[in-house]
Give the backbone structure.
Amino acid sequence: MNKSKMRFMLEQLILYIILIGLAAAFVIPFVFLFLGSFKESSELFRIPFQWLPDRFQFENYKEMFASIPFFKYLKNTLIIVFFNVVGSVISSSFIAYGFARLRWPHRDKVFMIVLVTMILPFQVTMVPLFLMFTKMGWIGTFLPLTVTCFFGNPFFIFLLRQFFLSIPEELSESARIDGAGEFRIYATMILPLSKSVLATVAIFAFIRTWNDFIGPLVFLADDDLYTLSLAAQLLRSNLDPRWHILLALGVVMIIPVLIIFFVLKKYFIEGVAMSGLKG
Amino acid sequence: MKTILKNKSKKTMKSSTKEIVAAMIFISPWVIGLIAFTLIPISSSFYYSLTDYNVLDQPEFIGLKNYTKLLNDKVFRTALYNTLYMVVLGVPVTTLVAISVSVLLNNKNLRGTSGFSVIFFIPTLVPTVIASLLWIWMLQPDTGIINRILGYVGITGPGWIASPTWAKPAFILMMIWTCGNAIIIYLAGLQDIPMTLYESASIDGASFFRKTVSISIPLLRPVILFNVVTLIINVFQWFAEPLIITEGGPNNATNFYSLYLYQNAFQYFKMGYASAMAWILLLIALIIIGVLFKIMKFSESN
C-alpha cells in the first residue's frame, strides 16, 4: 500500500516536471518579446545575453508611434477585419442553414465539397485570383479581401452546420405549421439560439484577419492600404531593420488578441475543439 | 379518409419542393463564391499553366513546357525535398509533442491543467509576421535565447537559420511552438474516451504511461489522422514564415513548395510556371484529402 502510494507520488512529480518544462518552453518567447520591447536597441544583440533590460523604458513604443503611420495601418486593418467579421457571420450562417436545417437531395454529398475547399491550400487559387482581380481593377483596393468573405467561409460553414444540426428539428416544424417562412425561422429562431457559436465565428474571423499576412501581401499593392502585418514586414525587410521598433509593434499587435482571447476563452476553445472530428 | 391522406401527401410533396427551393436560395452565396473564387480560378490556372505569361504581355501558349521544365528545375526539386523533409520529420515530431502535452493535460490527477492548456494555445494567436520576427531574434547564434538556454545545459547551439543543416530543424521548433490547435483537438478527443476504461485499468495496477499507450492512443486514432493530415497540408502551404525569416535561404535550404510558387509568381513574374506548380499542388492536396476521407469513412464503419 505504502509502496504503491510512493510510486503514485513519484509519477505525479515527474509528470509535473515534464509539464512545467514544456509550458516554460512555450511561454519563454513571450517573456523574451515583452522584456525585449523595453530594452534599448544597443542591448538587443548584446553579448553576453541578459534577460532583463538595463532599465525599463518606453522609448521603443514612443519611437514606433512617431516613426511609422501606425494609426493608418491600424485603420486599414480594422476596415478589413470589420468586413470579414460581418461578412463571415452573415453569409456563413445563412449558407449553413441550407446545409443543416433543410432537406434536399444529395445535400451531404454537396457538403463534402465544402469540406474539400476547407482544406484546399490558398496557393492553388492565389495566382489566378491575383490575375482575375488585376483584370477587374481590384488590386490596390480592399475589395479582394472584403468582398470575398460575403460568400461564406468553408470552415465557418462547417462549424455553424455542426451546431445547427444539434438544434431539435421540432422547433422548425412547429414554426412551419404556424406558417413561418424559412428566412423567418433562420433569423428569429435559429440565430438567437446560436449566439455562442456565432461568437466563436466572429472571434475566429477577427483573429484570422488581424493576423493575416499572405492575403494583404498578394492583393494590397498600395502601401496606403497596408495592414499592421504588412507594416511589420516592411520594417523588417529594410536594409537596417529597427528591431526595437519591431518588438514594440509586435507587443502592440499581440495585446488586443490576447485580451480578446482571455475574455472570450470559452468560445475559442469550444470552436477549436469542434473543428476536430466531433459530429 | 382517402381524401385526407391524399391532401396530406400532396401537402408534404408541396412543402418539400418548397424546401428544396429555399435550400437553393440559402446555399446560393456559397455556390456563387465557389464558382467565382475557386472553380473559375482553378480552371483558368490550368490554362495559364500551359502558357508563358509575365502579366504585362499576352499569355503565350507553350503546351506542357512548364511541367517539363519543373522536372528539371533544381530549385523546384530542392523545394519539394524540403517540404517532404518537414512532412517526414516535422509532422511526426510535432504530433508527438502535441499528443504528449494533451495526454498530460488530460491527466485527472494533475491540478491546474486548464491554466496550462491556455499557455500551450496562446502561441497560435500571435500574428505570423510577429512570430517570425520573434523567432529570427531568438535563433540568433550568439545573442539569441535558444542557444543561451542550450548553453545552460552545456550544449553549444548551432547557427540555426544561418546554417543549411540546422535551418529546417529551426523551422520544426517553430512548428511545434504553434501546435496549440492540435493540442486542443486532441484534448477534446481524449475527453470523449469513457472514464470507466481508465478506472478498470487502474484497478489492474496500470501506470499512467501504460494507460496512455494502450487506451488513449488507440482510441485517439481518427483524431490523430485528422490532425496529421491538417499538418501535412499546412506544410504544403507553408509560406509566410520562411519568406520573412530566411527568404528561402541559406542556399535554398528553407525554400518550401508554396514559397517557391510565390517567388515564381510575384518576384520573377512567371505566372505560367507558378500556375503549373499550383496545379501540381492541387493534385497533391486532393490525393491527401482523398486518403483522409477514405480512411475516415473506413474507421467510422468499424
Summary: The mean pLDDT of chain B is 87. Chain B touches chain A through 101 residues (CB under 8 Å). Strands of chain B lie at 51-52, 60-61. Chain B has two domains: 2-49, 74-301.
